[in-house]
Amino acid sequence: MIQLFEKNNMKKYILIIIFIFIHFASCQQNEIDPKEYFLQVVNIKANQLNADTYKLSSFGRMMLFESEKCLIKENYLGDSLLDKIYYTKDSILSFSQTGEGPDENIMPRLMQKKDKSNVIILDIQKKQIITKSLSKSISSIVNLEYMFLSAIQTKHGYVVSGLLDKEETNTKRYALFDCAGKYVKSFGDFPNDGNDSGGKSKTFAYQGYMVYNSVLDRLATVAASGAIFELYQIDTIPMLIKRYHDIYPIYIDDSRSGRNGIKHGKENVIGYTDIYATDRYIYTLYSGKKLNQHTNTRMLDTMLSNDILVYDWSGKCICRLVTDIKLFNICVTNDDKELIALGWDDDYHLYSFDLSKVTFTW
């Protein structure tokens, strides 16, 4: 009887060990550099544009308005939080001032172009989505129920990521909001990275950027840490149609004194630093550098990259563009023939790259 009991216990122990091993193995990841997927590699050369480097005070995402020959660009330094840059001449104007007034912003982030003469802005701190013309007139303001880190407008309302202040436990990566800014539902699982930190920590770990194709009703997202790319068909029920979870972020929970946050490990990989899309392609700027590859005075080095990874809207890896100048931010003309970028060569500069001779194949 005792022997039978010992045998049964031994079987249980073995099963537990096997289960733990399987679970541990499932959380391990064979890291893949996403550049390896791209068989076509094209070198492109920069043409410096005539913009005063003194006026380009920081990096920041950009939206391109071809008909006006101008960019709307985020500015993280100074009172002008958004700049309007005429990239064919030396002219940089303020597009948004700091403040709490109806035509001022506190923490604006560019969402997307609405059309040829309007841009959509998310003010994270004011919990507002603002539609603003190039002449700076505001046509709509949507007040939001909650605070989140990024958003994109779709045919059905808004898709957001980084939902921060919703009280109920939320284990999903994205959420749908209606056109009035009201929460509808959450969707999309976080990558299975084996990290048991809570949902808020994962929200910070997987924050990044989004682009939307209104013709196909598809959404592409990339993470700023690791190498995480996801493509969704939105419709009324979002469906994941392609993903590349090649490198997970390295992070630990850092919630102190009631604040939410994370700490990244020194081996954490800086992932996609920008994304831009046309009707045909998704352009992503990928770093791939680790946090331990910088000094305290050169943190920006890890964000600079020469690699632009181009996907189509089915998630196929089309082409890797390699630039001769290190870049912070990118935008592309609607016909995919010109890329305009903010780069660094002893100072901030605007550059143009001719894509008209690049044959995008796979």
What does it look like?
The structure is a single chain. Residues 1-28 have low confidence and may be disordered. The radius of gyration is 22 Å and the shape is globular. The longest helix is centred in the first third of the chain and has 26 residues, at 2-27. Strands 1, 2, 21, 22, 23, 24, 25 and 26 form an eight-stranded mixed sheet that branches. It has 362 residues and is mainly beta. The protein is built from two helices and 26 strands. The relative contact order is 0.14.
Q: What can be said about the biggest beta sheet? A: 8 strands, mixed
Number of strands: 26
Question: What is the strand content?
Answer: over 45%
Helix content: under 10%
Q: Low-confidence spans: pLDDT under 50, at least 5 residues?
A: 1-28
Which geometry do the CA atoms define? globular
Structural class: mainly beta
Distance between the termini: 67 Å
C-alpha-based Rg, rounded:
22 Å
Question: Secondary-structure element sequence?
Answer: HEEEEEEEEEEEEEEHEEEEEEEEEEEE
Mean pLDDT: 86
Number of discrete helical segments = 2
Pfam family, one: TolB_like
Protein name: TolB-like 6-blade propeller-like
Organism: Parabacteroides distasonis CL09T03C24
